[in-house]
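Issue 218. Parser rejects a valid record. Input:
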Amino acid sequence: SVAILLYLTRKFKTPDHWYPSDLQKQAKVDEYLSWQHVNIRGKGSKLFLSKVLLPLLTGQPLPPEKLEGITEELNVVLKQFEEKFLQDKPFIVGNEISLADLVALVELMQPVSAGYNLFEERPKLAEWRSRVEEAVGKQLFQEAHEGILNAKNL
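Output the parser choked on:
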C-alpha cells in the first residue's frame, strides 16, 4: 500500500529521490499516489480481473463488448497519465525516479499480464517504462513481476 511505502521511506531513510524532501517534488509524488487508486489501479485491476480472474472462476470469458468498454476506460486514464503526469519529463517528478513511478509501473503490469500490451502504441509510455526498469534493475523488475506475468497461464 501507499501508506506502507511512505513508512518504509521514512524508517529506512531511503535515497531522497524515492520520496523527495523538496516539498514541490513531494507534492507531485503525493498527487500521483492519490490519483492512481481510482484511475490506473482501478481501471488496470478491472481489466485484469475481467480478463483473467473472472473467466478462471466462472469458466466463461467476458463478452467482447464488455471487455472493450473496460479497455477503453483504461485507455482514457493512460492518456491522462501521459498528459498530466509524464508530460515531457523522464519520470513523474522530473529527472529522477520516485515512488510514483514505481507504483505506476507496478499497477500497469496487471493489464499487461492479462495480454493487453498498453505500451505497444504509446512510445512515450514505453520509453518511460524502460527508464523505470533500468533505474530499478531489469533483472529485479522481471523477478518481481514473474508471478503476475504468468497469471494468464493459470
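Fixed in the parser; the record now loads. The mean pLDDT is 94.
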